[in-house]
Amino acid sequence: MCKIYGYCRISTAKQSIDRQVRNILASFPNADIRKEVYTGTKYQGREELKKILDKVQTGDTIIFDSVSRMSRNADEGINLYFELYNKGVNLVFLKERHIDTDAYKKALESTGIKVNQADDTAESTLVNEILEAINKFMRVKAADDITKAFEQSEKEVADLHERTKEGIETARLSGKDVCGTVNKGKTYTVKKSEQAKEIIKKHSKSFGGTLGNAELMKLAGITEPTLLKYKKEIRQEMINNGEME
């Protein structure tokens, strides 16, 4: 019987892995969930993933919340993707379903070309050559899709960083400082705390993101005491909402 594995990975022990688990079980309730806290920089350090790869068989499925959870970078991900595809293992990426191995396989099958390996006629040789060219093209396309998925993830962080900087600069030029006060001692009401919390919840390593405290302080335009205060409030809100234990 084919098995379904769900692989969830976080960068530090302080992060919550629950979001990834919920996403996978929502689509694949029978998945065998494997959780991993990964703090190194090499693929070989992912012990839980290695355990899956050591036992996975043809017809089995591995589910990831996103392509970025499969590997450290695009090149590593591309190699692992085709290694598993050639083994007959199905890969599912919940945030990038167009990269699923099933989508890749269907694209190849849609060509309608079939090869008779025992046939060595000129026609069969030509068909083999055409199929080989199509395979190469589809491999390049799949690799490009994986690379773009990694680039998109990085771009989202960079774009948010730039928007935050622009917002802070706009507030400063209009006579407001980043702490929420106006020059000449006047006060004003803004949603800066809400915006900062949104940034922290989305990008903090403590909540499944990729940024550390120093990066978060710069991105949200807040001090370390404020960051720690907001993280504590976010954590309590998530516990109250059942998002974190």
> Structural class per helix/strand content?
alpha/beta
Largest β-sheet summary: 4 strands, parallel
- Which percent bin holds the helix content? 40-55%
CATH topology of the largest domain: Rossmann fold
| DSSP strand content | 5-15%
Give the strand line-up of the largest sheet: 2-1-3-4
What's the number of extended β-strand segments?
Answer: 4
Low-confidence stretches: 177-190
CATH architectural category of the largest domain: 3-Layer(aba) Sandwich
Write out the CATH superfamily name of the largest domain.
Resolvase, N-terminal catalytic domain
Overall radius of gyration? 23 Å
Write down the domain tally.
Answer: 2
Continuous helix count: 8
CATH class of the largest domain: Alpha Beta
Global geometry: elongated
What distance separates the N and C termini?
A: 34 Å
